[in-house]
Amino acid sequence: MPPSPRWPPTSPSDGRGQVPSPHEDEGEERPSPDLRVVLLAVVAWAGALAGFLLQPWLAAAVSGLAAAAVTVRSRRGRPVVLAVACLVAGTAVGGSAMLRAEANRSSPVAALAEQRAFVTASLRVASDPVRREGRFASYVLLRATVTEVTGRGRRYATHVPVLVIAGDPWREAELGSVVRVEGRLAPADGPDLAAVVSTSRDPTVLEPPAGVLDAASVVRAGIRAAVAPAGPEEEALIPALVVGDDRGMPAGVVESFQVAGLTHLLAVSGTNLTLVVGFVLVLARWAGVRARGLAVVGALGVLGFVLLARPEPSVVRAAAMGSVALVGMGTNGRDRGVRALGVAVLVLLLLDPWLALSLGFVLSALATAGILLLAPPWRDALMRWLPRWLAEAVAVPLAAQLVCTPVVAAISDQVSLVAVVANMAVAPLVGPATVLGLVGGLVMLVVDPVGLLLGRLAGGCAWWIVTVADRSARLPTAAVEWSATAGSLVLLSLLCVAAALVLPRMLARRGWSVAGALVMVLVVVRPLPTPGWPPDGWVMVACDVGQGDGLVLRAGEDTAVVVDAGPEPALIDRCLDRLGVERVPVVVLTHFHDDHVAGLPGVLADRVVGEVQVTGLRDPEQGAASVDTWASGSGVPVRVPAYGEVSRVGELTWQVVGPSREVGGEGYGEEGSPANNASVTLLVVTHGIRILLTGDLEPGAQELLDRSTTELRVDVLKVPHHGSRYQDPALLSGLGARLALISVGEDNEYGHPAPETLDLLQDAGAEVRRTDESGDVAVVVRDGHLSVASTR
Fold first, then answer.
1. What pLDDT, in 10s, does the model give residues 37-96?
2. Of the residues 209, 241, 272, which one is the last residue of a structural domain?
3. What is the pTM for the complete model shown?
4. Are 205 and 334 found together in one domain?
5. Are 268 and 314 in contact (CB under 8 A)?
6. Each residue's pLDDT tens digit, 732-787
7. Residues 442, 445, 448, 450: is their CA dihedral positive or negative?
8. Which residues contact 373 (CB under 8 A, 6 or more apart)?
9. Residues 588 and 721 in one domain
10. Vertex 518, ends 516 and 524: CA angle to 5°?
11. Which one of 85, 322, 590, 772 is CB 3.0 to 4.6 Å from 695, fit for a cystine?
């Protein structure tokens, strides 16, 4: 393997404007980077984890053993000194972690939480509010620090972190403000919180944010105003690129970024800081600033970025990693960058040990380490047959992606195969989109027309990034599933280590590199073969789309009717590809919850779609509006089918058997969501069997269906609402279904399917198949006999 030139390159040209080939100086042996500070950071991280996750009396022992186990011999120091330094670092961070965890556990807030006490408290908001969709309504999450709490007749002054779960009015709570909350406390799951506060009451603002944070809010508002004329997805992406504000990102777009390996663009990361501060440094150099002046400008740029993006722990972490990247861009950048990385991790853990439990911190540190340690030799190998700029464009995302792959798989249960190419495709426009968005927001505060012009240019760059993410995620094998079990993650880590050892030799050879790239292209653009899938005689498939419904009814050779599209476009798209479906005469969306409609763009992609049928209740309105937008963008009409309507397509016949009356009226009972009870319910007949598709009907609507459809008997039942415990026993047991299908996500937070529902179905004599256990599940009819097949 050729020696590594400095990273980034600082080599002089050969007089012809060309950089010398990396193997022209093979006789020169470059020293390996000094890893002592990195080792200190690793031991400190281990100490923090010991302090949080192990019994307190073990934490010191773990730190001591970690230091005693050090056998790495430094080039410039003795092992004993290094071992002592590791002992000090591990003990200091581990001790800090223990003290903070114990402070949370022993606080008055934690004691009141154990009693489930109703309290009045003063909180300082420590994070931007985040809106989430719940089962019956949306809710808001935010972190805060309790400064004073009154409960059980006593008042306490304290300073501990809590998580607040509240209603939509809390979306207006500003970072840094002090508010009064009245709510009920509950114990927290982890050591990083003293309690969880649940409240249905509006916050009372006691103190507004500090002036500097208020000014940052004005700039953020200017950024959003500058990009407002862009499309909705581009309008939401620009604030995410500039300051990590991804609150407006549609769920479908977020999923596409995850599959494409571009999630780092949606959160505050070192990339954001590097682009923003790098732009400021370029302006400073243009203005004549040099030497120490540039260092001052850089430091002020980092500080300004932190204030603009909000001084949350994730932002501070991103600022540190971005600063390391800036250091790595200078002379002797690789060695200096590695030392800076170790110092950054060590200092951050000393200041905030909670970062040791943050997956975002893990990903930032690993990506930075990969770029500093692996990218230079890989670039050198590629430079044997590629120009430097292209070698760097391949090596940097490849190194970052490889070292982060096991952690990403642990989070998402999948490994992206398109991440490197997707990152290369968007890289040229990430910088312009970020800088134009920032400058446009600043100018918008002074000259509106110029700010809007810059915002439109930023929106054009963002359009390309969104398009790359969307197209990459829709590729048949954009990602492969990978179980997040300990054994499978260890195996994946070993594979990544093996790849890191083999890649330098492989990348140095044009033939091997081109062959490997062609194999990856074929794997990604062609669906991975599933022997025996789809099975002969399949009439219906419940696609494994996670926590949601995605059902496919066969109507011909390459034709099918789709009922619900799941929560993610890529998943339903890949399922349809595996089944060979090219024409969809009808898409039926039972109701407008995201887990049934958010995947609709995946159905519409590259297929001939006739129409979309929907329920008459536009609840939630946001979901209904999204369906209208996606359908109109593809030129597909949307309509509400009538109760009792019968339709025929090829081999299929179906009748709409619900909802039979206005949702919320008499007969639905008091429990349940109106949107769920408004689910379009279909009775399907195909190849001599009857199938009942029930959406998310809950007990009241199920009882009404049972009364309004006399002597209803079916062969196959799609179990309502992912097998939740809210079922009408009379309906489920009276249908006589031989097969019950449950479309449900693995390890979902709702506890679906409920044990009592499974017992009810088994007592009724139905065979139960679940997508979380069996993958895609197919109903098969051969020679009049009903059977079932699955992908696992």
1. 888 888 888 888 888 876 544 555 555 555 555 444 444 446 677 777 777 888 888 888
2. 209
3. 0.67
4. no
5. yes
6. 888 999 999 999 988 787 889 999 999 999 998 999 999 999 999 999 998 889 99
7. negative
8. 33, 334, 338, 399
9. yes
10. 105
11. 590
